[in-house]
Task: structure prediction
Amino acid sequence: MNPTRRHFLQTSSAASLAALAVGCDQLEIPDALRVGPRAVAPPDGPFAVPTGPDIDLVSHALNRLTFGPRPWDYQRTRKLGDTEAAAFAAFLDQQLAPDKLPDPAGENAVRRFELLQEPLGELFEYQEKHLLDALVRSTVLRAVFSERQLFEVMVNFWSDHFNIDPSKGDAKWLKVADDRDVIRAHALGKFPAMLRASALSPAMLWYLDGRVNKKANDADKPNENYARELLELHTLGVHGGYTQQDVMEVARCLTGWGVQEVG
Result:
């Protein structure tokens, strides 16, 4: 059997939790730290992989819109409509409205990571390794346990599209705010709003040098790093029809944005 992404993530999480539990079996786990109940067996019966030539719309939805179906997801999703097409449409409607979709398991899984909700200026009070560890763990746990699967898939997509290496400078702290205030805030929103939020993100201004892109006097030269990435990766593409002069003009238009240091 070929493992799905969800199976890999869940197996990795279970192994990590098991390692942490060695020698601590007598400790009572607080409810706030539980990741939610797990079904011992599929509640709606076994799931058989479709073998016919026709496209199974429910399987197609679960494979495309989630991190991989759990054994009981197929039957639960199929019951959303009288036909496969109706079930597909109902499931898609649910996923496109994540705020209306109850997600107790997903919320329980990340409740322990309260530091990720700290205001931007307060993030610098934490060691960067603790912040990044919390960000990685919460991302994996949401991918495994959240019912808002399409939202998490799009968070993964946009995090890659507007990539920020958190090892660079203050991005070690600011990436947490970028994930929360840019990626997650606009994951299912409109692209222009996402693009503007990313351009003004302190983490992005640090990572692609927007904070030092200035022309305060004749000796200054605009830094084209972000402008090039904006055209090449974020919008038009490598062969998008723009020229080096276009890159320099975009950089000139974006001069003056910076990150104010506090304290």
User: Anything to note?
Assistant: The chain has twelve helices and no strands. Residues 17-27 have pLDDT under 50 and may be disordered. The first helix runs from residue 5 to 21. Residues 208-263 form one domain.
